[in-house]
Amino acid sequence: MIHAFVLIDATPARLADLAVELAETDGVSEVYSVAGKADIVAVVRVRHHEDLADVVTRRIAGLDGIVSTSTLIAFQAYRKSDLDAVWDVGTAEGTG
Q: What is the distance of C-alpha 53 from the center of its chain?
């Protein structure tokens, strides 16, 4: 599974409607309105790189009100439980 985060700049008048349209787009699993370097972040989850290209360049970029996109592809996912396990060295019996 390929995970990507698409940072989207949009025309202000279209932000709310665009967020709803993005959430209904095949391949887009989550949509967040954000403050900072983008207006919206869409989380894309697909099986193949070709699918990612289709979602970003056709389905997302083709929506009315998109000014620009920047796509970040995830290499590794970290969950809190995974990170806790990395740092939990525990104690051996008889030490202390």
A: 14
Q: What is the pLDDT of residues 47-70, one digit of tens each?
A: 999 999 999 999 999 999 999 999
Backbone angles phi, psi at 16, to 5 degrees: -65, -50
User: What is the distance between the alpha carbons of residues 63 and 58, in angstroms, rounded to a whole number?
Assistant: 8
d(CA 81, CA 4): 21
Closest among 8, 19, 26 to 70, alpha carbons compared: 8
Please name each of the domains of the chain with its CATH number.
2-82 (3.30.70.920)
| Structure confidence by residue, pLDDT tens digits, 12-28 | 999 999 999 999 999 99
> Are 42 and 22 contacting, i.e. CB atoms less than 8 angstroms apart?
yes
Whole-angstrom Cα distance, residue 64 to residue 11? Answer: 9
Which H or E element spans position 93? Answer: none
